[in-house]
């Protein structure tokens, strides 16, 4: 049985107890056992990161480049193998699993380059003979708390900038997906990073999370996950005066206008709403469609859904893998019932499916005849469930798209430059997509949302420096 262990101060440990890592495509398949760290071990990980901080902060850009580049190279070389492990433990299909691994490798390569490109400013002082320089320094120990839906890419896009800018790390991955985090930690352990600069602690977030968010030696916390957990982390960080960065939910709109190319609109909506089993914070869960194209759009979406193959994530023929676990499946099915109860019509899917292997399979659900005020259009489902809202015209579509507590990603399908330009300016979201799915982003540009979706500086791209560095202003009179 494979053991997914903790990694603290350069040593591997079994944890205080273990939990099984179950394949959601086949619940008889136990992938391994995962270490659950005790609170004392979580504290030891913080102490190790604190002890390693001065050494790694003093590393040269070349040393940081070499470490991150090596990590990226090994991830890319092992793309298929790691992708398979990821698909086996999370349930996304093989192409998505290896695609995510590739993204993780590219992120490490990108931040290897950023380590070399760190900049500062030199300014003339307002006082004669004085110069001012503004430089970026590491924050110190950062705690990274990550969800199950991107088991390697999200850890990568937090760890890589943290290390590139000279910080040391304690990673707490989601308990549902310990294998990918363990594989990443093994790769990092061979990269030449000093012992203690990267630490991995497994276990339940509600148990060891508070150790990380309240420990005085943790200077910053970066979190991706649910809104209630994120808000709790923000409160703990405020209490302890830590920097905090939160990426949380979405209820992302995809607007389809009468003038849209129907093929593009259907392809983008299908991908955005249902790929990765809809388990993306950027998923297009609200399809806002103008009345001239509405019926044709719904008919084409329904046809396309009928053809989607739902099944074992490890079967190359599968297009939609299982839901991640029983609890998430129950939530997804509940929302289909809620939508039905609110007057929505289930145009396709929405039921649990039986397959040869016991797993958490669900037929992707398309719900029509919904209105903006319904719960199905206001609350994040986080599964293969999308609803259609019929609107009169572009102005109403924009108003409905923005009438939401979240603001992560917002899409529009149109052939009109006028509407596309207006939407890019007025969509209340951190990311706007024209004729593209709301989900599936580049790795080298900022990622994050507005309103209730995100809090704190952006992740990814060079904007990540805002969170992972602190600015020092130095005045010199020769
Ligand atoms: N925005 C996004 O990308 C995601 C959103 N979600 C949303 O959240 C819902 C529930 O999913 P769930 O996995 O429970 O999400 P959570 O927000 O609970 O989990 C995200 C991470 O936070 C950890 N965590 C949980 N409680 C605490 C705490 N008190 N302090 C510190 N860390 C903590 C979790 O640990 P552990 O799980 O190991 O206990 C996990 O590593 C989903 O249905 C979906 O709506 C979920 C995943 C990603
Ligand atoms: O859509 C993407 O590419 C990223 C989505 C994401 O980060 C998430 O769901 O947590």
TrEMBL record:
InterPro entries: Ald_DH/histidinol_DH, Ald_DH_C, Ald_DH_CS_CYS, Ald_DH_CS_GLU, Ald_DH_N, Aldehyde_DH_dom. The keyword Oxidoreductase applies. This is Aldehyde dehydrogenase family protein. GO terms for molecular function: oxidoreductase activity, acting on the aldehyde or oxo group of donors, NAD or NADP as acceptor. Keywords: Oxidation, Oxidoreductase. Residues 14-473 form the Aldehyde dehydrogenase domain. Residues 14-25 have a biased composition (Polar residues). Gene3D superfamilies: Aldehyde Dehydrogenase, Chain A, domain 1, Aldehyde Dehydrogenase, Chain A, domain 2. Belongs to the aldehyde dehydrogenase family.
């Amino acid at each position: 049985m494979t053991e997914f262990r903790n990694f603290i101060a350069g040593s591997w440990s079994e944890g205080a107890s273990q939990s099984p890592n179950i394949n959601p495509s086949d619940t008889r398949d136990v992938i391994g056992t995962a270490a659950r760290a005790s609170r004392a071990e979580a504290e030891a990980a913080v102490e190790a990161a604190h002890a390693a901080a001065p050494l790694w902060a003093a590393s040269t850009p070349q040393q940081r480049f070499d470490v991150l580049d090596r990590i990226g190279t090994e991830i890319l070389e092992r793309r298929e193998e790691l992708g398979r492990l990821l698909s086996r433990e999370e349930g996304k299909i093989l192409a998505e699993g290896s695609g995510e691994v590739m993204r993780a490798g590219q992120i490490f390569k990108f931040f290897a380059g950023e380590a070399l490109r760190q900049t500062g400013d030199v300014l003339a002082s307002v006082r004669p003979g004085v110069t001012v320089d503004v430089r970026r320094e590491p924050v110190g120990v950062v705690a990274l708390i990550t969800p199950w839906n991107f088991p390697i890419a999200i850890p990568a896009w937090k760890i890589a900038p943290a290390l590139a800018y000279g910080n040391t790390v304690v990673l707490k991955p989601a308990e549902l997906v310990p294998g990918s985090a363990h594989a990443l930690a093994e790769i990092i352990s061979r990269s030449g990073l000093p012992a203690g600069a990267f630490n991995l602690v497994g276990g339940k977030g509600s148990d060891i999370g508070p150790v990380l968010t309240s420990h005085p030696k943790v200077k910053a916390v970066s979190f991706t996950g649910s809104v209630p957990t994120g808000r709790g982390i923000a409160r703990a960080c405020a209490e302890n005066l830590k920097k905090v960065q939160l990426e949380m939910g979405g209820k992302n709109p995809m607007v389809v206008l009468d003038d849209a190319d129907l093929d593009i609109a259907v392809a983008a909506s299908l991908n955005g709403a249902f790929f990765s089993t809809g388990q993306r914070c950027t998923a297009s869960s609200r399809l806002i469609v103008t009345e001239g194209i509405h019926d044709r759009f719904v008919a084409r979406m329904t046809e396309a859904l009928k053809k989607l193959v739902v099944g074992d994530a490890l079967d190359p023929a599968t297009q939609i893998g299982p839901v991640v676990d029983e609890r998430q499946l129950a939530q997804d099915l509940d929302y289909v019932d809620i939508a039905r109860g609110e007057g929505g019509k289930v145009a396709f899917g929405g039921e649990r499916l039986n397959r040869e292997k016991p797993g958490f399979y669900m037929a992707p659900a398309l719900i029509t005849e919904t209105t903006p005020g319904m719960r199905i259009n206001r609350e994040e489902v986080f599964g293969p469930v999308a609803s259609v809202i019929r609107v009169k015209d572009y102005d109403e579509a924009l108003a409905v798209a923005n009438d939401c507590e979240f603001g992560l990603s917002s899409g529009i399908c149109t052939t009109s430059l006028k509407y596309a330009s207006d939407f890019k300016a007025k969509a209340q979201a951190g990311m706007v997509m024209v004729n593209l799915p709301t989900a599936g982003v580049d790795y080298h540009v900022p990622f994050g949302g507005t309103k209730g979706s995100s809090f704190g500086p952006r992740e990814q791209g060079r904007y990540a420096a805002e969170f992972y560095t602190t600015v020092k202003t130095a005045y010199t009179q020769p």
